[in-house]
Amino acid sequence: MDRATRVGRHAADGAMRALCCALMTLALMWAGAAHADLAPADGPKHLAMRLVAESDTPRAGAPVTLAIDTRPAPGWHGYWRNPGDAGFAPSFAWTLPKGAAVDGAPQWPVPTTLLIAGLMNYVYEAPYAPLVTLRVPAGLAKGTPLPVRLAINYLVCTNAICVPEQQDLNLDLTIGDGAPSHGADFDRWRSAIPKPLDAAGTYQVKDGKLVIAVPLPAAAKVENPAFFPFGPDMVKYAAPQTVTRDGDRLLIATEGAPKGRIAGVLRIGPDLGLSIHADAGTVAQASDRSGWAAALLAFAGAVLGGLILNVMPCVFPILSLKALHLARGGEDERAARIDALGYMLGAVLMCVALGGLILALRAGGSVVGWAFQLQDPRIVVLLIALTFAITLNLAGRFEVPVPQFASHGGAAGSVATGALAAFVATPCSGPFMGAALGAALVLPWPAALAVFAGLGLGLALPFLAIGFVPALRRRLPRPGLWMERFRRVLAVPMALTVLALLWLAWRQAGATGLAIGIATMVVTGVVLSLGGRRQKRGEGFGWALALAALVVPAGLAAALTGGAAKPAAVGGDAFSESRLAALRKEGRPVFAYFTADWCLSCKVNEASSIDTAATRAAFAKNKVAVLVGDWTDGDPALGRFIQSHNRAGVPLYLYYAPGAAEPRVLPQVLTPGMLAGLK
């Protein structure tokens, strides 16, 4: 059969298929008309709809997102932007105030498939909400009414009949300060909108089969995948789809004969999808690579990241004291190894426990990442008490047998010290660590927990080396009076950690948080100093004082319930995906960075590289826009954006060059020269 014949047959098949689909749609609509009592013009609709604004008081000149909150009646379904083999997509007619405009087509959530009599439909059987962006005109005074009207025509069906319906939706807004009115609802609706995958895929048609290769990291979790094309003549709707993983790509095998670019939505999980596109090319055959390589790479990155954490000011004193404990002498080889193994066990167990809690919370729908506990100011107050207690211990104000900061032996003390070191290290993130923990969140849970265990192992590696290598212990300085002096020097970085936590309490809860933090310090200091005086007289610390040291800070922390507005983030405008899209549409280069007040690495980078005169001058010269995502309070929208870049937390630094398909992910340790070179 020659090519012309094949093309002719293909065209004939396409025409016949289109005719059959049209007849089926008309038949269903005729059946719906025959059941006119199902959709009375003035009665309840089979798709209950309401128009909702993210802010009922939008700012003049700023965009506001609208949602068409749609709820199908039991047994009925609405249609996606591409209905598939039958049905038709909804049509929208907007009536807006002068100067207002709807920006582009609606954003649709991920649909589901419905196969009836060999015809594939792309539908919604559960509640859903298309989103649109309304451009509010500038120059309007606060209090100005902003009426929005929408006439929508659509088709609603069961498995047997279809009914065309029409609704007029009204929404009356008032110009104001742009404060969110339905934040939780829009967080949920946005999470169902497919995220754009900037990297292009490739497709190839061979022997009547269509194979689409989509670039997707091997660590990305994919569940019940399916491809939904945006338009006709891309794939055969009802043809089976087989999706397989091949390293850092997904291969979609189906039927179709596209003639240009393919574009659509790839479902990767319940209500999760990616907007993808693919061009014609050659798709290499699948290899036998597996996800083990990604898991091993993430594990190695976590070990390296944990190793680097040892130089952080809140971890280094604890490690140093444990090393000095060995330098005191009197411990044989076996005792040194037990000490080292206990320290490692404590660090690994703490990291695995925190990682398991993160995975459990994420499975329950929460968007959390590494150091998530510091998003709660009550936990910050408890950490103030703990770190201040460590500071007083290092300063010699009291001695405590648990967690036995190197002045006491025993495996139990070493386990407690390792766990403590891992816990106080959670505000920190460094090279290798961010990518490794980001990968852990999309790996199967056994591999993910292994990555978190690798973080604890890296944290314990220096002490393991000292415990198991006698030559290293022999190189430690000989015991002497200098050790007590050095111990007091180590109290300085711990005291700085206390001050940083006080600042964080103020940022999260305002003057109330700062006052409770200071009160916690005072109470902790008084109780521990009284216990220290008893110890110097040869008495025990005292059970009453020990109980007070635990209960009083917990009570003060529990009293902290309110929050306060925080000062503006450093160095730019607040991040939002709509603002990012607008800047990119203007062709502006964009530097977007994601930070948190509890993130030590973030603050170091901001002070040394971002918030500097040289960087500001370079950005002004090159017209680089700066967007700041402040994740201090665990904003779920920011959390999802961070997660989409395979990161478990902050810092995250992205640079969007004009015209680039995807952002450049910058290192987690910045230099002023690195930022000055962005154009």
TrEMBL record:
CDD domains registered for this protein in UniProt: DsbDgamma
Alphabetized UniProt keyword annotations: Membrane, Signal, Transmembrane, Transmembrane helix
All residue ranges annotated as the Thiol:disulfide interchange protein DsbD N-terminal domain in the record: 60-170
Signal sequence interval, chain numbering: 1-36
Gene3D superfamilies referenced in this protein's UniProt entry, alphabetically: Glutaredoxin (3.40.30.10)
GO biological process: cell redox homeostasis
GO MF entries: protein-disulfide reductase activity
Domain of life: Bacteria
UniProt-listed Pfam families: DsbD_N (PF11412), Thioredoxin_7 (PF13899)
Ranges that cross the membrane: 292-319, 340-359, 379-398, 405-425, 445-469, 489-506, 512-531, 543-565
PANTHER family reported for this sequence: SUPPRESSION OF COPPER SENSITIVITY PROTEIN, THIOL:DISULFIDE INTERCHANGE PROTEIN DSBD
Protein name as annotated: Thiol:disulfide interchange protein
Provenance organism: Sphingomonas taxi
